[in-house]
Amino acid sequence: MQEVSKGKIVGVNGNMLTVEFEDQVIQNEVAYAIQGETRLKSEVIRIRGNRADLQVFENAEGLKIGDEVEFTGELLS
User: Fold this and answer.
1) In 10 A of CB 36, how many CB atoms?
2) pLDDT value at position 4?
3) pLDDT (tens digit, 9 = 90+) per residue, 8-62?
4) With helix as H, strand as E and coil as C, how does the chain read?
5) Which residues, including other chains, have CB under 8 Å from residue 55's CB and lie 6 or more apart?
6) 19, 30, 35, 47: which could join 7 in a potential S-S bond, CB 3.0 to 4.6 Å?
7) Residue 1: pLDDT above 60?
């Protein structure tokens, strides 16, 4: 099983997140923004260096800088 890559939110603009990550992240990868006990599904839209822009498919209200993101390693299908 592939180890889950993690990142931290460094920017929030509506349902678009900018996330800083350490491990490898791929375009169109599924990720989950963690908000307390809630996991909000999102997709990697763009990668620039060690930052990725994600589009959240659910209501992103309440997500803030510093919240954790888990990258699944799986492409959106």
Assistant:
1) 7
2) 80
3) 999 999 999 999 999 999 999 999 999 999 999 999 999 999 999 999 999 999 9
4) CCCCEEEEEEEEECCEEEEEECCCCCCCEEEEEEECCEEEEEEEEEEECCEEEEEECCCCCCCCCCCEEEEEEEECC
5) 15, 16, 17, 42, 43, 45
6) 19
7) no
